[in-house]
Amino acid sequence: MLRGIVANPVVVGAYVDRDSGGICPMLAAHRNGGRTSLASFARAWDRYTGAKRPRLATGREIRTLRSLLESSLAGGDPANPGSIAEAAASIRAEREAIAEREVRLADATPPVTLPEPADSPIRLRRRLETGERHRARELRSRARWSWTRPARRYEEYRDLLAAAQEQLAEQRAAETLAESENSQPHSG
Fold it and tell me: What distance in Å separates the CA atoms of residue 5 and residue 26, rounded to the nearest whole number?
């Protein structure tokens, strides 16, 4: 699908648009070797874009689709995510290897540079700009609108969740304060 959305004009609201010559992302994937017939993607894509009629997808919509596709590919195998114990053991082993390497480097008389492992699991990627803007006001009435954006890393998700919990606590405190002020008798 990634190759297909780069190589073809992408449309929303239709499978093919003869006027613009565009095709939907699913057909683009099919033409590039992807053999799938997931109708729910097409419905979700049209719902996300708010398509009322066939039209070319905007640059923002294509950048968002590309960003979501790349993040889904970078996430590993969703069918077999592994356990937390395995992840913790892997992290401990990596930390021990780093500590051993630092000790060897410190003890070495001549300066020694050890090569980095070729299959290093940590890869830094620059974040693609999707062009998203704050759309809460216009999306508030849409069904199944999310209260937060997808997070690429656990730390980012944890921060988003903490901010949401803090906002909820502040809202509840303000409601409680307003209720207590309204329930107190006024002297006068």
Answer: 9
pLDDT tens digits, residue range 141-179? Answer: 776 666 666 777 888 888 888 888 888 888 888 888 888
What pLDDT, on a 0 to 100 scale, did the predictor assign at position 143? 66
Domain membership flag for residue 23: yes
Range(s) of the domain holding residue 176 = 147-188
CB-based burial label for 147 (10 Å; 0-12, 13-18, 19+): exposed
* Residue 176 forms part of a structural domain: yes
- Cα angle 23, 53, 19 (rounded to 5 degrees) comes to 50
Token pair for 48? 């996300």
Total of domains in the chain = 2
